[in-house]
């Protein structure tokens, strides 16, 4: 491949394709003319070698374990910034000035309430429904309430829809939790910051004042930052594909929530905690490591491995640190689950199976222990992931909609089904 061209020999003919360079990271071979030139498609199920778009939002170097939000390392953003500042950065590309941040926080704060009729919408669900089912349904239903921000061709309506999603997702998530425990919904409090307001809506009750613990609120805010965006992961790709048809943003985000729910993706934090509880004690770890390595056993170490990271997930390091802070703050001296998690990590990182396949802890490995210590039930873990990832979905959706080259996503296939054949009447079928 010469510097700017790649040559493909197909059927004895050489075809040239442009090679495009990014600011950092792998080059791409632009094969958009491949079918027109050769009559052949590329084939890449799971998109392991496919760039679906050009983006300037997030960059991952999987081999080095690097994650950048608009160029800023995740460790610095998580330690020095806050979640709403991160939302501004992901949406608009730069860290906000003091005035820009105040304006943005003010806009979000003034959109945190949901339409009062949505409370009646919730009562249609069973009390024991999984909160992710409730969130998928209620976010999709937002298109039935906010008609004045569904015209995606209007930049102002796109802005309002973006702010509404970021502002209302914590409120809907807290309502899903309250509904599942049979407690009354708690309204947002504009005097509280984003993460304190979320914890207040989840854990306050009308009968008494609820003081948000500042250490837990800071931890919540940092957890939101860590989960905010992550290139073209499965749920973000779902939002982009749904948005490419012109569907309204609320419907696109609902599709992203549905995809995130899967245990191979955002559902892994819930699955990882259940796995740690199933292991139960350090002496049972070898049994589960053996199962994870057994090709005939579908068991996987949940919270381990990643499509892109072939090194330690940088978010997992910050998550582990936050986990220790939260356990100390809530007075959990030695959590058996944390003991199991740390010993499991220690053993796995030395085992040649995991070393050879470059399987490291990912963000979901420590998040479950942390969220459980903060008082959330396991069923709420992926809901919290969705609250954080909403800004990433919205930022990626905005970038796609504002791209003048944007067109509907429509992949092709390798067909291996029956060739053309004539219909057989029922009396002649064998
Ligand atoms: C998230 O994409 C993102 O960016 C996602 C995310 C985000 O922020 O949006 O980072 C969030 O989803 C994190 C990942 C959470 N999922 C889990 O923790 C579930 C457990 N992990 C695996 O299911 C798996 O590692 C994936 C799904 C995360 C990645 O799978 P890939 O890239 O398709 O890799 P693979 O399944 O082909 O695995 C490669 C090899 C296989 O062995 P071989 O067939 O080559 O012999 O590694 C093995 C796998 O069997 N393997 C594991 C393993 N993960 C992969 N073996 C045991 N335990 C594991 N966890």
Q: Care to describe what's here?
A:
- There is one protein chain.
- The chain is mainly alpha-helical and 430 residues long.
- It has 18 helices and six strands.
- The strands form two sheets. It has a three-stranded antiparallel sheet with strand order 1-2-3. A three-stranded antiparallel sheet has the order 4-5-6.
- A hairpin with a 2-residue loop joins strand 5 and strand 6.
- The radius of gyration is 23 Å and the shape is globular.
- The termini are far apart.
- The structure holds s-citryldethia Coenzyme A.
- The site of s-citryldethia Coenzyme A has 21 residues, from loops.
First CA to last CA: what distance? 55 Å
Q: Main sheet?
A: 3 strands, antiparallel
Bound molecules: s-citryldethia Coenzyme A
Structural class: mainly alpha
- Shape label: globular
Q: Output the strand order for the largest sheet.
A: 1-2-3
Mean pLDDT: 95
Work out the oligomeric state of the chains in this entry: single chain
Low confidence ranges: none
